[in-house]
Request: fold
Amino acid sequence: MMRIALGEIVQETGTFTRSRTGRKAFEAYGIFQGAELLEQLAGVGPPGGFLQVVAERGDAVEVVPLSRAWAGAGPKILDETYDELLEMLLAPLREAGDLDAVFLSLHGAASIERDDDLEGAVLEAVREVIGPDVPLVCPLDHHANITTRMVDCADMLVGHETQPHYTFGTGFKAAKLLFDWLDSGRKPAIGWRKIPMITPQDQFLTSGGPMKAWFDRARELEQQDGVLDVSPYPMQPWLDVA
Reply:
């Protein structure tokens, strides 16, 4: 039986404010651990998509729940809040035993006081626990700020395909890609390119205009042999980081 750990830390940061995001912002949406995570996230967001794929596979997968902390868009996260949430994620991971993979839902554009790249920091910490060989798959918001740390630590970064977002579908797709890898033994590779561009919010919808053309092209590229996923990341204009 496969054993796959499941966790989530999500917030979208706007850096143009001196305010800070604390634990209460996450508590407002629910901080879940252990079995409660599985109960509360069935059908919800990327973790719900993952759990749906697991359910379709029957009893062949044991999901090891870690923790879930989700907050809406807001200012930078307090360092002490981040440290607490990270430990909630890592503590059960350290005790999880042998794992076949980790499915970690992140936003991609979160910052804390001491680090502009929360996701890179989380992925580094998780990778340190699980080692270099355990598959680490991350569904992301397509407003993510992809960094070298994220690419170096994760094996797959799968972004939303639409705005408005269909977050369940992103998790479902990422989970399908993960199980294709585990079933076939063929490890995917990531290719990426950073574009020096700030995208305007009034053109973010993927139903028309330049975003539709860009995201439609991504779907076309996925039809090519050997291409598993093409995730454009237009980022967002409220994150003033390097």
Remarks:
- The beta strands are 2-10, 31-33, 61-70, 101-106, 136-140, 156-159.
- The domain at 2-221 is CATH 3.40.50.2300 (Rossmann fold).
- The two ends are 43 Å apart (CA to CA).
- The chain is about 35% helix and 15% strand.
